Amino acid sequence: MKRAFFKFLKLIASLMLLITTVVVVAILWPLPELSVPNNHDQILIESVNIVDVKNGKILYDHDILIENNKIKSISETWNLNNSVDLRINGQGKYVIPGLWDMHTHSNQQSPWLHHPLYIANGVTGIRDMSGQLNVKDSYWVGSIERLMWNAELNANKRVMPRYVLQSSYQIDGVSSVPDGFPEFFKIENPNQVDSLLQFYKNEHVDFIKVYQQIPVASYRKLAYRAEYYNLHLAGHKPMFLSLEEAIDLGQRSFEHGRIFLFESFPEADSLKNPKNWKRYFSKHKRKLVDEHDPKVTRALMQSMQSKNAHWVPTLQTLKFEALAHDKTFLSNPNLKYITRIRKKLWWNMDAKNNAKKNNAEDTKGVSQDFYNMAMQHIEIANNLGVPIMAGTDVTDSYTFAGFSIHDELEDLTKSGLTNLEALQSATIIPAEFVQNENLYGSIEIGKVADLVLLEANPLERISHSRKIHGVLMNGLYYDSERIESLKYFSESSASSFHMNIKVLFSLISSPLVRVQFAD
């Protein structure tokens, strides 16, 4: 009996050793490298139709000469005897500036799971809204890594979009900071604000990502002191002070579609109580729609317009919550680009929780009402001159790197924007926001030639932004064949065993992820 028992223990120990060995090997197993196309110093796009995103006009059958990744000339004809490194036949095609996604979240696996898909979908610039504290995180990336990636992009060593601004970690008070990190990250006391700003200034960050539960006094001090460090504030509407005050204090962009719903109903002050705001919101969410006051909303939008505060509605997040019970919506073909670990541990649970709310008697239809109201708000805000930028909130549930920017553009047109205005929300307006419109955002002589060739005119139908024939990025040309290879690279990476183990290990090893899930 004892011999059988010890034999059983030996078998279990051997099995555990085998599993541990497999997991360790998977974690350490090197990931494949994505080859970079040949760089071309001089490129000519011939007889292409140029979409002017500033005025909506089209220059038909023009040639674009590109030298060292800058547009050197735009003309009706080009001397065919002149030699160039690469000629691209643009006849019948339409060219637009590379698209920018102004709300993303990158992680340590993004070079395999996200970057190729951005380029394949014509997204050449992203504003990442994540960051780190004072220690490199196993999951989230910070400014130092993103800037290193940018440098490698410029050296033609990486396939990736440009990271156009650098974010801090989300500043959300005590609950967002794990034990063992410097106290100033919690900014419980306004006196800690300068330490926080100095730290992120040293990390070459451009803005402080503010979140919902940031202490009021500390937020005010952040807004007052940020400019001294050449930083600005962007992110969520802080819950415990009014949107009007946040606008007046100079927050440069506000994220997500709910911001006006939080402020425009009679009991809005109930959401400003740090002790019970979550409980109140959960119990009275329907009130925000049923008792919505459009006059308050319009006044807030006028304040945003006057202060040039930008809005990134990220409609895809509200759409997911509204349709989480819909099997057709959940059967998205782009799920093949998502790791099984993410789907099992995050997305599926998120979908089940939201589907339960959508089917419950007391909350049925509320998420759909939020989504519909956000679309109505976009139309009003746009008509009032609030600058709107396209953003997707990758890697949130059912947002897909690259693909979702086209969904967002379509939803913006369903919300009242013209096709031109939707294009502007992902091109010239973001370029102006980052104060780099002299290099990006439109197709003009002297600007960087990050370009997308389309099979059809996006001004006629915004869905034509999906019909990508080729992408020019940093002097590299991704033709239709290479675009398909980028998609396959991310698909095969997402389905591989060792990538899923790496994602799992990075998630459970991250103290930042643990506190975010706990909250």
List the topology elements.
Blueprint: H1 2-28, E1 42-51, E2 58-67, E3 70-75, E4 86-89, E5 94-97, E6 99-104, H2 110-113, H3 115-120, E7 123-128, H4 143-154, E8 162-165, H5 193-202, E9 207-210, H6 216-225, E10 232-235, H7 243-248, E11 253-255, H8 277-290, H9 294-307, E12 310-312, H10 315-323, H11 327-330, H12 340-359, H13 366-384, H14 403-414, H15 419-425, H16 428-433, E13 451-454, E14 468-473, E15 476-478, H17 480-495, H18 497-509, H19 511-518
Parallel strand pairs: 1-4, 1-5, 6-7, 7-8, 9-10, 10-11, 11-12
Antiparallel strand pairs: 1-2, 2-3, 5-13, 13-14, 14-15
Helix pairs in contact: 1-18, 9-13, 10-12, 10-13, 14-15
Description:
42% of the residues lie in helices and 15% in strands. The chain has 519 residues and is an alpha/beta fold. Among the domains are: 169-235, no CATH class; 242-311, no CATH class. Strands 1, 2, 3, 4, 5, 13, 14 and 15 form an 8-stranded mixed sheet that branches. The protein has a 4-stranded parallel sheet with strand order 9-10-11-12, covered by helices on one side. Strand 2 and strand 3 (70-75) form a beta hairpin. Helix 1 crosses helix 18, helix 9 packs across helix 13 and helix 10 (315-323) runs antiparallel to helix 13 (366-384). The termini are far apart.
